[in-house]
Amino acid sequence: MTNPKDPFDALLEWLDADREKAGQRYEVIRAGLIRIFVSKGVSDAEYYTDEVIDRVIRRLPEIQADYVGDPARYFHGVARNIVMEAGRRREVPTEVMPQGLQPDPPESDTSECLTKCLQQLPRDKQEFILDYHLYHGHEKVVHHREMASELSITEGALRTRAHHLRVNLEKCVLRCIDHQGKNKTGVPRHSN
Amino acid sequence: MGGVATITKEHENEIRRYLFGQLPEADEERLELRLLSDPAFGEEFDTVVDEVTDQYVRDELEAAERKGFEKSYLTTAEGQQKVRFTSELLERAAAERGPAVVKPIPEPGLFDRIRALWQVQSLRLAATAAAVAMIAGGAYLALRPAMSYATLALSISTASRGEGPAPAKVKLESGVPGVEVNLAIPEQAKGAKDYRVKLVNGDDSEQDVPIEKRDDQTVTIRIPASSLTRGQYAIKMFRLTPDGNFTRIQGSYFFNVE
Predict the structure, then answer these.
(1) Contact of A94 with A41, CB cutoff 8 Å
(2) Is the pLDDT assigned to residue A123 strictly greater than 90?
(3) Which residues of A touch B75 (CB under 8 A)?
(4) How far does A28 lie from chain B, in Å, by closest CA?
(5) What local confidence, expressed as pLDDT, does residue B36 receive?
(6) Is residue B128 located within the same domain as residue B229?
(7) Which 190-249 residues of chain B touch chain A by CB within 8 A?
(8) Closest-CA residue in chain A for B28?
(9) For residue range A151-177, what is the model confidence (pLDDT) as tens digits?
(10) Which residues fall within 8 angstroms of residue B97, CB to CB, at 6 or more apart?
């Protein structure tokens, strides 16, 4: 039973009358906002994504009745404003790549964590993900064609398979680095 | 997880230009709205980000693309972490699955040696005077079989001996003076002022091996045939750190002598 006065429920209702579909739409919007913020060079994308959602929730009672169109467009407008605000607040020059936005984990942490996370994969997946990233340029194209042919799948399916594996591997490495940082300092390195 | 989509070249180019900050505002808005409404497109987007990051790490982007990526995506902690992960992943792939090149490099022939000598101006006169003697000596040298080092090109592996992919193999034929080994310096160890190399034998005994030459990418050593018998070998590399100490670079280079 949902409480109609709950602002988050009101947001979901605005996204779609069907709660399940509304939940899915919410997740897509959230993931999209994170991608936009990172692409626009806004650090701490998750924080700003929450900020967008909070602002939309706050404005919802005023706009909900008369708003026409896809709610995603409204989120987009708010996100654009935040990108501009963040740009104005940014103190670092953008001509060079800043190196110290947050303390880098030691190289050995990433290396150790990658080793651990690879070991958690079945042998064939370990080999697949490493093989996939073996070559570059024209050799990569030829190699991926051969891999797809050996696996009897299309090159597009190969690419998707590699991407899913890589995403999970990267998440595992991030969790591991975070865990190691916590063990060393008592404070997690990443907030997410 | 959104549906699996095969990305079109057009979408890919559009996403790339967005990441480099090269997309007109109207197209940018359209792309962002799609990111907020189409989960399959979100996945396509992430795939392109991965590929652009690969290209960034491998220094394959054009200058304007590189600059655009650095000015936006890579200013974020998320982007920088992605670069670290990608760098490690590509290095690991090369180290554990990359092909080891085994090819003999012929020593300079007699003709090359004479030509090199001839190019030294101050020795021309002496060379002329000694020509007869050299021709006689040259005839002798030409009849001897050419001596050449077997060569190996190895990448570092973090697997322990006996694990991971099969190590590179080298066969020492009779008369081969030894093995020239080109060791790829791992990304995180590049730029050190000096390196040190140790050969680890099958019985775990170690010996220092002098470095023949090195550049930004590779350290080359020569191991005399007299130091090698059939069996497994590992090579450890150390780099000079700013505090003046040599620190072990994680991992080893493996090869087998047959």
Answers:
(1) yes
(2) yes
(3) 41, 43, 92, 94, 97-98, 101
(4) 6
(5) 97
(6) yes
(7) none
(8) A36
(9) 999 998 999 999 999 999 999 999 999
(10) A127, A130, A131, A134, B165
Q: Report pLDDT for B195.
A: 87
A169 contact B CB<8A: yes
Give B99-117 pLDDT, tens digit per residue.
643 333 334 333 344 344 4
Dist. CA A49–CA B78, nearest whole Å: 14
Position A103 pLDDT exceeds 80: no
What is the Cα–Cα distance from A192 to A171, expressed in whole angstroms? Answer: 11
User: Using DSSP, how many helices (H) and how many strands (E) does chain A show?
Assistant: 8, 0
Does residue B248 share a domain with residue B124? yes
State which residues form the domain around B201.
Answer: 117-257
How many distinct structural domains can be found in chain B?
2
| Same domain for B182 and B137 | yes
Contact A82, A56 (CB under 8 A): no
Q: Concatenated DSSP letters for B183-223?
A: EEPPGGGTT-S-EEEEEE-TTS-EEEE-EEEE-SSEEEEEE
pTM (2 d.p.):
0.60
A108 touches chain B (CB under 8 A): yes
Q: What is the mean pLDDT of residues A11-34?
A: 96
| Mutation site for A-interface testing, chosen from B75, B86, B156, B248 by largest number of A Cβ within 10 Å | B75
pLDDT at B5: 54
Q: Which of B84, B21, B6 is nearest to A36 (CA)?
A: B21
| Chain A CB contacts of B39 below 8 Å | 28, 31
User: Which residues on A lie below 8 Å from B89 (Cβ)?
Assistant: 114, 129-130, 133, 166, 169
Domain boundary among B42, B64, B97: B97
Of A119-128, B169-178, B199-208, the range with the highest mean pLDDT is A119-128
Q: What is the mean pLDDT of chain A?
A: 85
Residue type, B1: M
**A131 at interface of B, judged by CB pairs closer than 8 A:** yes
Alpha carbons A28 and B32: distance in angstroms, whole number = 12
- Cβ neighbours of A36 in B, within 8 Å: 32, 35-36
Q: What angle do CA B242, B209, B253 make, to 5 degrees?
A: 80
Measured between beta carbons, the chain B residues lying within 8 angstroms of A174 are 81, 85
Lowest-confidence range among A114-118, A181-185, B225-229? A181-185
Asked if B139 and B89 sit in the same domain, the reply is: no
Chain B 31-70, residues with CB within 8 Å of chain A CB atoms: 32-33, 35-39, 42-43, 45-47, 50, 54-55, 58, 60, 70
